[in-house]
Amino acid sequence: MLISMYICLCCCSFLVYFPECLLFIVLSQMPHIVNCVIRISKQSIHLSKLNSLSDRIFSLTFDVISRVLETGPGWRLVSPHFSSLMDSAIFPALALNEKDIAEWEEDTDEYMRKNLPSELDDISGWAEDLFTARKSAINLLGVLALSKGPPVVSAASKRKKGDKSKGKGGSCIGELLVIPFLSKFPVPSHGEDASSKAVQNYFGVLMAYGGLQDFLSERKDLAVTLIRNRILPLYYLDPCSPYLISTANWIIGQLTLCLPEAMCTDIYNSLMKALSMEDAEDVTCYPVRASASGAIAELIENGYAPPDWVALLQVVVKRISAEDENESALLFQLLGTIVDAGQEKVAAHIPGTVSNIANTITNLLPSVPDPWPQVVEQGFAALVAMVQAWDSPAPDENKEHEKSAWQLGQTAIAQTFSTVLQKAWLLPVEQMEPTLDSALPPPSCVNDASVLLEFILRSITSMEEITHMKVFELVVIWADIIAYWDSWEEEEDQGVFNAIKEAVSFHQRFDSSGFFLKMLPSQSANGSQSSVISRVSSFVTRAIAAYPSATWRACSCIHTLLHAPDFSLGAEDTRMTLAVTFGEATFSYFKGVSDSPAGIWKPLLLAISSCYICYPDAIQQVLCKDDGNGYTAWASALAQVSSSSFTPGLSSESEIKLAILTLATVIERLLALSMGGTKVLQDCYISLMESCIHLKDVQEDGDDDDGDGAEDLDDDDDEEDTDDDDEVMYHRTVFSIFSLSTLLEDREHAIRIRRMMMCEKRQKRNSLQDMLLLLASQSRLLRKET
């Protein structure tokens, strides 16, 4: 027997992993192989007594039958055996056995992986890597239930062209065989335990229903009937069998999309009962609570609103503890789902909830600088969900009482977050042995932790709070962590970029001593000294070439880092160093994508523009360092991006102003280099005209399009300097137009522009609107000349 099983293992493996050879085998040896695998599959009644290798053999036999059923000849070979397969092979593999009960107690996670699988969303004859006999049997049952016969057309159906009742409307095996077979097993009676044959068989019935997800989703009335008559009664048995309830929870999670709204309340109440099920004296109910947690999350994600959000929140928070990390990790996920969906209905309870789960997270944080366990990562994700829910219903400024209460909650949450981050970041550094190369805490949950830090920074209202929450200390260690962070593919980073912008805003509001610009010792392995701004800039520099979305976000941060901090505090050299570093990184990346115009050009070229406006000479040297034509190549590309025909074009007012100021500066530089007749100068001039007209349209419409999210430059960063920037932009633009008009020997326009410049000195401020007709005519003149 063992020899034949091992021979079959080789044949089965060949069929499973090389399905392209199936047609050849069908023509010769398929009948023999089918008979062999069916005989082996019918030995599944002994599955609980066999080892893992034998279990794998049974898994492969079921997989082979599933694949054979996907072919016409194979279906005809297997179809005579459908009834015996159900009774003697598939169902015995699904029924509860002694091995299941032992595994439930000894390794609940392994039990759930095998028996409450999440990867059965796609029932198919070509499924791979199921590995266990039970999963493969479930998959085979799903394939069997959906089958209607071999894919052939009979001669009779060819003659009856008007008869459409066959084929599409015919009954499938699920209706003819599977459901009637499963209906033979009644719901267990009160008082029956796992040793009862009725409970063991009904466990197999529930596992079978779970495998019929695709079949039942096409027959929602049948699914509702089965849940009402065959599943919900299990929750009212006395006592409830945990083995049955956990599987019932799993099925409900699988069939959420089939549930009518009128039935959801009964199902939700049953799941809440399961979520609150306590361990018995000799049986753990963790799989029951875990599967109930997943099913409730599925209900909520599919639009069900619990009748009492607060009661659900309290039940979940009460069960989260440091004693059972696996269960707490699942409950943290459910908590995040509840808060995401509940929003304003749970917002008032968020400060208390944050405090409760933060205590659990701090107790679960490792005392040594090791990567954080999964439960801590899930806890941080839940805290981030609470930040988002808390921010969404912020009261209006004119509602003073509500605003005051909300501000108290905001401060309480920020204080809690500070305590968590101190335990996560500061305490490990303080306890680090001096002999270690690096004293940095582990780079775990960097994005989520950055969201919490951002919340703290924008919640600060006084210097006393800064001291109490150790804000400066947290910012220093955070900047040190992200300076060496390099997990672009494994973790999100939007929270890090948001925290960078909020840190710069915090620096403007509270850092009067220039702490962010001071040289501080690093906790990294090299131990070098650097400023907070420099460490943050290191992260941004590496993000430029990470992946496209990170490029957009990094380029947006470049403008913030160059123009928002107060570099007048004896740190102008730092600013120049940053500009050169950013310029080198962005231009290097641009050269790699410069072969043909692309959307990624826009953030890269505008970032270089931000650097160039600060230090034109230094950035020009950067652009020409490896290629003498680098400066003109960048200028030409900038003119192309700034033109009205480029997609995605300049959209926000800040982008357009930056382009106008840069183009005007470039035109001055090109004229100084005696490049008046070149095409790049002409392109820059035309784009300058079009950008000025575009700016006027944007200002008149009041439509500062922020559709690109992180891609647009932040208008808020420069609100205080708008007047000064407009004046600089005006004078540079007018000078460039005047110079070009003179170059083109257009005396009439040159005289008009000179008069406008003199008028501008008297009026102090001009928004360029009076020049737009002149700009349009100059644009037409230049096109004619070229």
Automatic annotation (TrEMBL):
It comes from Aegilops tauschii subsp. strangulata. One of its GO terms (biological process) is protein import into nucleus. One of its GO terms (cellular component) is nuclear envelope. This is Importin N-terminal domain-containing protein. Residues 699-726 are annotated as: Disordered. GO terms for molecular function: nuclear export signal receptor activity. SUPFAM superfamilies: ARM repeat. Residues 700-726 have a biased composition (Acidic residues). InterPro entries: ARM-like, ARM-type_fold.
